[in-house]
Amino acid sequence: MKYDVVIPAAGQGKRMKKGVNKQFINLQDHPVIVHTLQVFEQDPWCRKVIIVVNEKEVDLFKELIEVNNIRKVSEIVKGGSERQHSVYNGLKILTDEDGIVLVHDGARPFIEQEHVHRLVEEASESKAAVLAVPVKDTMKRVRNGKVIDTVERSSLWAIQTPQAFVLSLIQYAHEKAQEKNYLGTDDASLVEAVGEDVTIVEGSYNNIKLTTPEDLIYAEAILQAQKIKERKLT
Ligand SMILES: Nc1ccn([C@@H]2O[C@H](COP(=O)(O)OP(=O)(O)OP(=O)(O)O)[C@@H](O)[C@H]2O)c(=O)n1
Ligand SMILES: C[C@](O)(CO)[C@H](O)COP(=O)(O)O
């Protein structure tokens, strides 16, 4: 099986509070985005990578791609003001309408090939699939600091990326969202908005999105654990 992947990396990392785009923060000597790109570089199912970046950072990304010998990046595309606009800019340049495209946050460096493959297999059957994990905490709806109700947890899943789609479907969903001025927090919600089903594929709790400073502590621990696992296998 084959797929292409769009990687939005044009955010500003405001919640990370480091004053730089979090894609450039080093985790064990490599920037976050290099860890993410290497997963797809090493996956034989991945045909090409479209990376979406801030216009002012194009040269920085180009340098990282060259220095780290990343060969699958076929295009570097200019990002938009919101994640959704950045993703749409990346999707627009793809043309294999019946092919599978993944959308994956540059800020999720711990995605594993095994989960990518399960996701691609599912999307090939059902047209739209997302990785997710069951929510672990009790969830409450709150207004003005007061609990309104406790939400039934058994049906709640925390949605991750990658999210996988047949290209023509996700392009259509983004076009419709743009027409209707609909802004979703992920791409699957745009597919839901045009009335299509999205299937859940269970992923890993380690596939975190680096969002706030404490995520970096967890990230170093995940990398350390991965190194130990690799050493045991060799
Ligand atoms: N206009 C934007 C906003 C976000 N992203 C990307 O979308 C992914 C998930 O977004 P998020 O975690 O919100 O990243 P930031 O926007 O960088 O973070 P913040 O909201 O804290 O500024 C990241 O890889 C980010 O670079 C993007 O390509 N274009
Ligand atoms: C797409 C996403 O990573 C799924 O969990 C998430 O919704 C991105 O959200 P953010 O608000 O851009 O951090």
From TrEMBL:
An example Gene Ontology molecular-function term: 2-C-methyl-D-erythritol 4-phosphate cytidylyltransferase activity
Pathway involvement of the protein, from the record: Isoprenoid biosynthesis; isopentenyl diphosphate biosynthesis via DXP pathway; isopentenyl diphosphate from 1-deoxy-D-xylulose 5-phosphate: step 2/6
Tree of life domain: Bacteria
Keywords on record: Isoprene biosynthesis, Nucleotidyltransferase, Transferase
SUPFAM superfamilies (alphabetical): Nucleotide-diphospho-sugar transferases
Site feature location: Transition state stabilizer: R15, K22
Catalytic activity: 2-C-methyl-D-erythritol 4-phosphate + CTP + H(+) = 4-CDP-2-C-methyl-D-erythritol + diphosphate
EC number: 2.7.7.60
Site feature (Positions MEP for the nucleophilic attack) residues: R153, K209
A Pfam family that the UniProt record links to this protein: IspD
GO terms for biological process, alphabetical: isopentenyl diphosphate biosynthetic process, methylerythritol 4-phosphate pathway
CDD domains documented for this protein: CDP-ME_synthetase (cd02516)
Function of the protein: Catalyzes the formation of 4-diphosphocytidyl-2-C-methyl-D-erythritol from CTP and 2-C-methyl-D-erythritol 4-phosphate (MEP).
NCBIfam families assigned: ispD
Family classification: Belongs to the IspD/TarI cytidylyltransferase family. IspD subfamily.
Listed name of the protein: 2-C-methyl-D-erythritol 4-phosphate cytidylyltransferase
